[in-house]
Amino acid sequence: MSLFRTKNIENMLVAGRTGDLKKVLGPVDLVLMGIGAIIGTGIFVLTGTGALTAGPALTVSFMIAAMACGFAALCYAEFASTIPVSGSIYTYSYATLGEIVAWIIGWDLMLEYGLASSAVSVGWSGYFQSLAAGFGLHLPAAITAAPGSVPGVTTFINLPAVVIMLLVTWVLSYGVRESARINNLMVAIKIGVVLLFIAVGVWHVKPANWTPFMPFGTSGMFNAAALVFFAFIGFDAVTSAAEEVRNPGRDLPIGIIGSLIVCTLLYVTVAAIMTGIVPFAQFAGVDHPVSLALQYAGQNWIAGFVDLGAILGMTTVILVMTYGQTRITYAMSRDGLLPPLLSRIHPTHKTPFAGTWIIGVVFAVIAGFVPLGVLAELINIGTLSAFALVSVAVLVLRRTRPDLPRVFRVPGAPVVPLISVGLCLFLMAHLQATTWIAFLVWLAIGMVIYFTYARRNALLHKHG
Length: 464
Description:
This protein is mainly α. The chain has helices at about 10-20, 25-40, 40-55, 60-80, 90-95, 100-135, 160-175, 175-200, 215-230, 250-275, 290-295, 300-335, 355-370, 370-400, 415-430, 435-455, 460. The chain contains 17 helices and no strands. Keywords: Membrane, Transmembrane, Transmembrane helix, Transport.
């Protein structure tokens, strides 16, 4: 009954090779899956909020957040190529740091994947309503937002957010190959929209708007980095697809690192152009900063395309993050830490059908009834803690199992993993105190579930 009992890696590898999930994904699918998860709310919404916090130095804030993700991405790539099984960092922790740590990190990932899906669904709803309003279509106020989220307006449910969550759930329950095809198409469209903004916006940049470059000092720049870190959340969802990849040793590192590089270049470029067109103070209260920049430049018709790109961009984020959540839950259920229904595979679709729908309905309800501000508070801290743990786990596995074949190795170990840990802790220190309190409450609930159900039902306990 040790809290730190670990799973046998050889058994995990056999289970990954002989599992029921279809192995249909290649490197292009994985890169596009990563881009699908990353480019969404971050580039279309958070750029405005970040500009108010850092000013034109938002470009540097994106680079700092990308560095933290980059070091963690290298650690993820080594783990994913060495132990290519479903479950992402939850599975890696179970093999190296022990069951109690694996449970904590799996519980954390529910904050990242599940609540991110709900939060982005709420953002999707806002852009959808804005686009519909452009055609003269307006939904009744009562079904446009969660209760209490719009001051002075009586609202009962955010119905568009619920609908998009359920539609994504239906797609995911049907099959991973079909989901990947839909994701790839939408990712191609939204990258085209971002490139269109860059191509048009660069001609309207006024360098005077970049002065002063750092109006709020280094503290504002670092605070913005902790905020826009949310914009990079999602590349690790690629690792949750490990059991469905044809050549995981080669393709997973390509998917993880490739998607992060592409998105970082796009983020920094868009932030520079956006703050060069519009004085940063004018982003106050704006939830569509990229469109605002184009409108400011007199390019209203292109701003409409950006709104459409935002909707598609957020749809792919919801798709990939919900997918990641279902695979994390699948892995935890297969290990006995969650009820077995969540890992039951559909005989035709070869997906965890019931588990996918249970998760989809739960987070659809959350998207419909919980305001966006409340959802966003917990996401970053859960992700940063996960990134720190995977960096530690890489070093532990290097020491305990040096014999394992590693197709990809983190360069510069142990320095790079330790830098990853340091950067993650540094950004966590810049999050609000209320976020830390809520995070600790979430962990406390997880501990109650672990000691009352998961620990005694774990397969490691039942099989000795």
